[in-house]
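Section 4.2 – Deliverable D4.2 (structural model, holo form)

The reporting period included a commitment to supply a predicted holo structure for the target in complex with zinc ion. Inputs used:
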Amino acid sequence: MPVTDSETLATLHRVFGYEAFRGEQEAVIEHVVAGGDAVVLMPTGGGKSLCYQIPALVRPGTGIVVSPLIALMQDQVDALRALGVRAGFINSTQDFDERRVVEAEFLAGELDLLYLAPERLRLDTTLGLLSRGKISVFAIDEAHCVSQWGHDFRPDYLMLSVLGERWPDVPRIALTATATHATHQEITQRLNMPQARHFVASFDRPNIQYRIVPKVDPKKQLLAFLRQEHAGDAGIVYCLSRNSVERTAEFLSHNGIEAVPYHAGLDAGTRAAHQSRFLREDGLVVVATIAFGMGIDKPDVRFVAHLDLPKSVEGYYQETGRAGRDGLPSTAWMAYGLNDVVQQRKLIQSGEGDEAFRRRAAAHLDSMLALCETAQCRRGQLLAYFGQEPDPAGCGNCDTCLTPPETWDGTIAAQKVLSTVVRLQRERRQKFGAGQIIDILLGKRTGRVIQFDHDQLSVFGIGEELTEGEWRGVVRQLLAQGLLAVEGEYGTLALTDASAAVLRREREVPLRKEPKRPAASRSGSSSSASSGRGRSKAAVAELPEELLPAFEALRSWRAEQAREQGVPAYVIFHDATLREIVALWPTSVAQLGTVGGVGEKKLATYGEGVLGVLESLGGPSATGAGGPGEQDAAEEGPGPATDTDWDTEPEPDDWI
Ligand code: ADP
Ligand code: ZN
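Output (structure tokens):
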């Protein structure tokens, strides 16, 4: 074995307190330590950071980390310092003196890692500074930001190709959680890394349960989901518009779930404060537009909920991937309905951009719709999208595996919808949206039906065998399958080239049955019913009942440490580490050191404190009574509200 192997492993044990490398980590690290370039594709939570942090620690000089996440640099650096790593950052949040201190540390060779925002590297002063110090490795984090077609494009990333030209002897490692082949190619090309070795990890996140439910009353559905499965948990709720972000955050707060909004319309101070609360507090919910989340490395995000359809599978996977980095059971939950399809199709048509851009956006949307409408394993579909072979037997941890949906032959229903569209167009030269078409099928004499004499059409009332909700499901699926199109500003329905075959009875239209009401949710976590509100369910999953008080005691102790030091609780120890501690119940510092996530520095800083907490509880079997439960509950926010507090404001556009 080369010397570096044992050195990297020793660093993993000593600094990070982990037993073994995960997946591709070892191969990546070995390659970069030896001076090679690497392009690393790993899902969120896969362990990308170690891939550059360990080479930076093992190779002489400072590792330069290019990251667009200025607001998170302080936390990243704090987390590293808590491990005893000499880390610093330079960005626009610092004043002149603070920056000078970091620059001096870098020049004196006193930094293992230095974080920089990409725009810094445009400045000659920064490039000049870097040439005067010694650099061990360049890490380009969130490397998909170089992709002009992607959802996070940052023009400054295009400049990063200069690093290879100026420092040909310093290895570069580009990392991203975006996995499609196209993005992969683009990163390699634009960062000018033709010699790089490529490491593509499995993109599966088995601890995340994927569920997509029909949208009926999204806010209430969300509330029920949170109350039943994620009471007291930290999570992110994504909405498309600022307005719905605000309303949803208010609604949750009003119903006893502590939630804060986050979107680009809030001033920078409020955004930073909300983000910081999310990272620091246990159990806070952030309701956000996609402006939130990149680089958030909070390990115990227990759920990610979508109230609107994401624009692409890439975006969806990145957003949901923010759940469960610690490997504990987590949920990706989405409510999706007809209106989502109509809105998104309309947006693409009326949006900016040239024809190629529109085509691409439409292709992204189609993949997203296929995921929503599939009767197959969701995880299988996701993995296949990223070019990975799914398990043909299904994953056992998504809604379609847990409760296989029924399908039915929707050919006749499809013909009825398409005929109505055809008749309006041919006989009346009119185009209407889904609402009017469905009213006609159901034979409803609404004001608009009478106004346009639509009760005179031969198709009037031919669809009474289905409910309005079911018809919306049919229209939604026809749109998703490309058998119907949305046109113009009003989202009117029109035929597509493929519709004709259905009308001529040349093809069948299998459809997914709409559940009568949203399927009862099932959680992957096996938490005990007695864990109650205010205590994270997943965090205590698999812990025997008698150890819960000790776990809670350690969490309270951790919260106190975090408050004193002004850092997020997970910077002290992750939930997973606390669980392992109570399960082992160490009685000596040496024994505590064998727990995953307890490295040398943390052992020295917190060892006595942790042992003290355990000692005060007497022992694993003596902890049943008393305990700090009350104290902890006080941290978790207001108590549950009654059901009658529900916001009953109707949202007509949000049906199904
Ligand atoms: P990414 O940047 O890929 O999203 P991180 O680097 O933040 O992922 O790692 C995700 C989580 O996994 C972190 O909590 C990290 O401490 C943990 N982790 C990473 N590598 C290992 C390992 N070899 N053993 C145990 N835990 C690990
Ligand atoms: Zn599945």
